[in-house]
Amino acid sequence: MDQKRILIVEDESIIALEMKTRLEKLGYQVADMAMAGERAIELVEQLAPDLVLMDIMLKGKMDGIEAARRITARRAIPVIFLTAHADEQTLQRAKVSGPFGYLVKPFQMRDLHITIEMALYRHQLEQELRASEERMRLLIESTDDVVLVQSLDRRYQYVHASSRYGINSEEAIGKLPIDFFPREFVDEMTLIHDQVVQTGKGTTTETEIVWRGERFWFNIHIYPIKNTAGEITAIATIGRNITETKRLKGMLPICAWCGKKIMGENGRWQPLDQYIIEHTTAKVTHSICTECLNEEMQKMDRP
Q1: Which domain holds residue 89?
Q2: pTM for the structure as a whole
Q3: Which of 7, 42, 83, 278 is 20 to 30 A from 160 in CA distance terms?
Q4: Are 191 and 198 in contact (CB under 8 A)?
Q5: E-assigned strands of the chain?
Q6: Per-residue b/e over 283-299, b at no fewer than 16 CB within 10 Å?
């Protein structure tokens, strides 16, 4: 296993040297030591240590909390705070910078070792999670599917949609479905969302939507997002455009007498042009064919 490199930030030289000795006995490598926050920031940029042990009460204009904040804003490096002051105000300030640990002086070598190992392990998990999230983001952005994540009050937390649908992903955050979609579609999706929240199980459906003057068919999968306690925290929706696959195919029951009507799925006859409009993305225009034109002309020529 590689030796982890640790930067010590401590303005008391004797304490810093003692800490260096302890760390080396524990099997760590001390990358360097700094006595001021400004110097600590410089060393982090130069050395890229695996972890920083940061005394909160540093001499000079910048204390350890501010130094840690600037370090973590630039690099994903875990910081453990060291202090002889464990008052509530200091603790609250330290928490804001997101430290990976907090040790109150004087501390035992065993406590130091456990805190460092836990910080390194947590940092590793967070890096793996970020990498996984980045892979997922790239995968989602490479697809033509519509991907939506909504809070339980139905506001969008994440939106990915092709530009053809006219939704600006950034502008959609925090808004409601009714801000973009027709009321009929929103009502249909709301019923499904409620069902998913109540049962805790995902579901799949097919639906038609007339959106911005175009007719689309979508295969929609809706499922709950749960936290580690099993509580539903959000609802995810993945919509796949299946309009092309819904084009007319197979045997169509057209009236053999008039040729102008077709039997729909409900068993009722309806005008052929209306059926085409409802079941395809085509638009219908009416004209007259040559045969019909000649027939009508002949009728007009008859006395």
Answers
A1: 5-138
A2: 0.56
A3: 278
A4: no
A5: 5-9, 29-34, 51-55, 79-83, 101-104, 146-151, 156-160, 203-211, 214-226, 232-241, 261-263, 269-271
A6: eeeeeeeeeeeeeeeee
Residues 153 and 121 in one domain: no
| Final residue of a structural domain among 202, 221, 246 | 246
Q: Is the pLDDT of residue 1 over 60?
A: no
Measured distance CA(53)–CA(5) in Å, rounded: 11
Asked if pLDDT for residue 256 goes beyond 80, the answer is no
* Secondary structure (3-state) at 18: helix
Domain total in the chain: 3
| Amino acid in the structure at residue 40 | A
Cβ contacts of 227 within 8 Å, gap of 6 or more: 233
- Confidence at residue 117, expressed as pLDDT on a 0 to 100 scale: 93
Task: Round to whole Å and give the CA distance between 45 and 34.
Answer: 13
Give 116-146 pLDDT, tens digit per residue. Answer: 999 999 999 888 888 877 776 666 666 678 8
CB-CB contact of 46 with 24 (8 Å): no
Residue 269 within a domain = yes
